[in-house]
């Protein structure tokens, strides 16, 4: 039991300025501690389980004498009931700090998710798209909410207005919200089911995206028309025309062709090695270069100030619109990506090459997990023969068409 001193009045307590511990009475063990600097605070000296403990009750004068005595009585009641008031207060403070640490808003979680993953994404543009879509659609409704409080009703308020009008964007928003909420769950910022999940949940409330906005394939040229098209294309000058020709003959995606660097190309060996960072599947891809492509590359001018094969303004890579502009000049209502379909149709309908060789040429991911696990090679030799045949088909037929036109004239 702490020492019970004479009960001091508020005025007497205010006059205690001598450094040291001054017991003020009223409650056993209650004292005003005066530091050398002059700061004053309340201390309750108690015995817990036979061990003396000094418990802080707050600073004076913010905590008055009456308030200090009330707190001291409550603490002594806890001791009599078998509770250590100091440990109890410490546990409550710890729980409060933990609760505050876990109280992140959706916007804070979204920012943390993007920061954690963007180094593994293909380009800064992908991260920018994440930030833009979440800021535009999710933030106005759930951005300021604690992530643990995001419910199905909030997700539906985000998706319903855009599900039928901008379906593709809406599906991306939904997937990104789901990813952020999953991240928050794993990190311990929320619990329970993810209200943005599709299978077995939102698919019961919203129509399938394909039913609302049927998937439209990229407009493609019939493979039988490729010779005539290539003959017309070769009449055009400029980096855009050559980049489009390069993309067609290699069956590459537009971004892969436009971003081709001289350091990736070994003309002597006839190989273009696209690094994983520039591939959609995130895996390095070797492209065999046919003699026609090698001739094309040798004719392309090199610029000392640029690493790119096809150089745009200020030494940068060509934009996607540059290749689209070439097609518009030719008055062709097709897309750059559509030429990959033209190549695929040619391989399927006009050759005996196995399906997997054509799919590998297009750098498509293997859908069958078992097949993917066992396939170690990239079928390079077979693809090299196929790409030569593709180039020869375009070149031979294009030449024949040109000759016929000349004779007719």
TrEMBL record:
It holds the Pfam family Phage_int_M. InterPro entries: CB, DNA_brk_join_enz, Integrase-like_cat_sf, Integrase_catalytic, Integrase_DNA-bd_sf, Integrase_DNA_bind_dom, Integrase_recombinase_N, Phage_int_M. Belongs to the 'phage' integrase family. SUPFAM superfamilies: DNA breaking-rejoining enzymes. This is Tyrosine-type recombinase/integrase. Keywords: DNA integration, DNA recombination, DNA-binding. Residues 104-185 form the Core-binding (CB) domain. It comes from the Bacteria. Residues 216-387 form the Tyr recombinase domain. It comes from Aromatoleum toluolicum. Gene3D superfamilies: 1.10.150.130, Integrase, DNA-binding domain (3.30.160.390), Intergrase catalytic core (1.10.443.10).
